[in-house]
């Protein structure tokens, strides 16, 4: 299962991760943040395996070793998603990391993808996709320019991930909102399944209830009703017990301005900039769905989670919508938000026949909490 390749005199071995690699994976994620005005590391403390195989997904992590040290990784998560109105097995490529000691060694990236391809041949997904931060020009150029030896990346759509500040005084909610119970599950499944949304997860009762072991019990689901009809379903999913976003640094200008910005923020209610090395106190609004005729009530439905979020020590709610979603202006007007834009790509290897999917006018909305 492992292969040896040469990369600029660096002997590199690739293999599927095992339990013995757990600490090395966490070190790689911790020590190699994503740099920007705010540098972030996306970590998996205290045990990488606790965040695997969410909601019926199947994870496979490929590691690159140099001199017995883990210097790179990439993960493929296979799960059922909606494509062209039907449930299809998809593979999401995520957690691509190279250690700072081998940064710029293209051969490791190329051969890592080759090894992942070899592993996928045994049971390939129908469709592969990934995401890249819109402002990460270096990585985008690498994949968008058809770099030799890498799979083809085809642009699909852009997503806006909103970080919504939990306000001190939530507004009153006119919707009738109740806590989910087992008797609601059939209607919840019906609403959560969105065949018209490309790459949305396929939900079953078993997958929904399996979230309990990943810190999302049914009691954290809220349901909105219009009369007797279920029009909204969502959950406050705090993943900090197994997956964390950690502030690893600020740009020089932002670091200097941070104390003043936080002082002003306490007065006007804008989000604070947390201390370096602190875990971002956020939770996903996920799974999340609104009935089509009630989509414009999403801002009010979000309001129903704010008291629970505050009581749970949550400072920010996280959700993603297509960048051209008509509800985004209303959300930004009603709440204090920060936006992280990403681009979705289909990933095709010459060895696999590409699946034709609808793109013109299609809504692409994978569940960001499962990526």
Verbal overview:
The protein starts with a strand and ends in a 7-residue tail after the last strand. 22% of the residues lie in helices and 36% in strands. Residues 1-8 have low confidence and may be disordered. Strand 6, helix 2 (106-120) and strand 7 (127-133) form a beta-alpha-beta unit. It contains 9 helices and 17 strands. It folds into 2 domains: 3-159 and 344-370, Gcn5-related N-acetyltransferase (GNAT) (Aminopeptidase), CATH 3.40.630; 164-242 and 271-339, 3-Layer(aba) Sandwich (Aminopeptidase). The longest helix is centred in the last third of the chain and has 17 residues, at 252-268. The chain has 371 residues and is an alpha+beta fold. It has a 13-stranded mixed β-sheet with strand order 1-2-4-5-6-7-16-8-15-14-12-11-9, with helices on both faces. A two-stranded antiparallel ribbon has the order 3-13. The chain has a two-stranded parallel ribbon with strand order 10-17.
Keywords:
371 residues; alpha+beta; Aminopeptidase; two-stranded antiparallel sheet; disordered N terminus
CATH topology description of the largest domain? Aminopeptidase
* Largest sheet entry: 13 strands, mixed
Percent of residues in helical segments?
10-25%
| Helix-and-strand structural type | alpha+beta
Number of helices: 9
The CATH homologous superfamily of the largest domain? Gcn5-related N-acetyltransferase (GNAT)
Rounded to an integer in angstroms, the radius of gyration calculated over CA atoms is 21 Å
Order of helices and strands: EEHEEEEHEHEEHEHEEEHEHHEHEE
What is the first-to-last residue Cα distance? Answer: 26 Å
The residue ranges in which pLDDT falls below 50 over 5 or more consecutive positions are 1-8
């Amino acid at each position: 299962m492992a292969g040896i390749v040469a990369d600029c005199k660096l002997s590199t071995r690739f293999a599927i991760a095992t339990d013995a690699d757990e600490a090395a994976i966490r070190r790689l994620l911790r020590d190699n943040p994503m740099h920007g005005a705010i540098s972030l590391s996306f970590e998996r403390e205290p045990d990488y395996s606790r965040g695997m195989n969410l909601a019926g997904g199947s994870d496979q992590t490929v590691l690159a070793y140099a001199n017995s040290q883990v210097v790179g990784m990439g993960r493929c998560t296979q799960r059922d998603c909606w494509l062209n109105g039907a449930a299809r097995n998809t593979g999401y490529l995520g957690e691509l990391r190279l250690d700072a000691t081998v940064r710029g060694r293209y051969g490791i990236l190329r051969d890592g993808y080759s090894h992942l391809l070899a592993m996928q041949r045994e049971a390939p997904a129908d469709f592969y996709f990934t995401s890249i931060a819109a402002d990460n020009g270096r990585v985008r150029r690498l994949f968008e320019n058809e770099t030799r030896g890498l799979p083809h990346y085809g642009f699909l759509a852009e997503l806006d991930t909103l970080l919504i500040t939990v306000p001190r005084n939530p507004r009153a909610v006119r919707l009738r909102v109740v806590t989910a119970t087992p008797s609601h599950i059939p209607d919840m499944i019906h609403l959560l399944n969105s065949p018209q949304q490309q790459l949305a997860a396929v939900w079953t009762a078993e997958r929904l209830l399996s979230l309990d072991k990943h810190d999302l019990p049914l009691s954290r689901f809220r349901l909105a009703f219009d009369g007797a009809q279920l029009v909204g379903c969502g959950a406050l999913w705090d993943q900090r017990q197994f997956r964390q976003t950690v502030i690893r640094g600020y740009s020089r200008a932002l670091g200097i301005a941070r104390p003043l910005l936080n002082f002003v923020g306490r007065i006007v209610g804008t989000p604070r900039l947390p201390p370096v090395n602190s875990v971002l106190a956020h939770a996903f609004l996920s799974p999340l769905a609104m009935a089509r005729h009630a989509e414009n009530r999403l801002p009010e439905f979000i309001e129903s989670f704010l008291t629970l979020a505050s009581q749970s020590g949550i400072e920010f709610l996280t959700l993603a919508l297509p960048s051209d979603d008509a509800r985004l202006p209303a959300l930004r007007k009603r709440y204090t938000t920060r936006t992280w834009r990403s681009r979705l790509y289909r990933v095709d290897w010459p060895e696999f026949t590409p699946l034709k999917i609808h793109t013109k006018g299609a809504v692409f909305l994978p569940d960001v909490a499962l990526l």
